[in-house]
Amino acid sequence: MSDTEIESSELPDDAVDPEPQRNDVELSVDGLVKRFGGITAVDGASFEVESGAMTGLIGPNGAGKSTTFHCITGIHRPDAGTVRFQGRDITGIRPYECADYGLVRTFQIAREMANMTVLENLMLPAQNQLGEQLWRSVLPFARQEVEREERELLERVWEVLEFFEIEHIAEEKAGNLSGGQRKLLEMARALMIEPEMLLLDEPFAGVNPTLEHKLLDHIHELREEGYTFLIVEHDMDLIMENCERVIVMHQGSVLAEGAPETITSNEQVIEAYLGGEV
Ligand code: ADP
Ligand code: MG
Questions:
Q1: 250 lines ligand 1 (CB under 6 A)
Q2: Of all atoms in ligand 1, which is nearest to the CA of residue 37?
Q3: CB count, 10 Å around CB of 237?
Q4: Are 167 and 270 contained in the same domain?
Q5: Quick one: where's region Disordered (predicted)?
């Protein structure tokens, strides 16, 4: 029996939690704090992300959205609070461990990779894992195994390329891609790790409207396959139209959380974030 079950069974009947039955929680952040010198970038943020849902994380510039992402995925170690993924406490995890658990954030294609082709870029994340087993390639039986894994890896790469409809740029150098194509590649790379949940920080920045729609279609398709998404995006309309749940951050903590309709009518949100424009 979990702690919460014990607690609720001790409550009198009329005090039973009136909240409607929630779907499974994929990610939960509780009392997260991150300071940089005198700045408290994240100041006690708490929220939950439902499994298989698309959740939007919004808030004005400097609200602490990116820092929250970095604390979740191990780029930063939080000063306080806990992060749970699929029920497991992953607070202060290392980024590579995070990927092993199936929680992945997209990141920009680094400058060193601009000279590599799209195909090579996609081979890289998984190849790093294979590379660790390099010693095995000196053993005859193990070498067969490594070759088999490499074949499977290449198959996976082509699957992902086809999914994003970017097979035609497989041999193109990453540095020659358009802004939008680069965004597709970034997401394709994340998928190579075979995650269960993706954190996207402004995935549509610098993407033209046509490609933005395409990218959104891909995200919806993946969502239907069961992937969970948490998306930071400044375009309110886009978030309201595409997300089932929205979390609003303001000055490092969560100001409001709920269905899009409840967010747009929330007085505090209108005042603090939208400046009364809605
Ligand atoms: P958002 O993504 O919501 O725009 P950030 O998480 O990037 O906000 O930033 C929140 C606050 O923390 C800002 O005041 C920002 O200047 C500060 N901050 C973020 N990262 C760092 C850092 N590495 N060092 C110092 N201050 C930082
Ligand atoms: Mg940011």
A1: no
A2: 25
A3: 8
A4: no
A5: 1-23
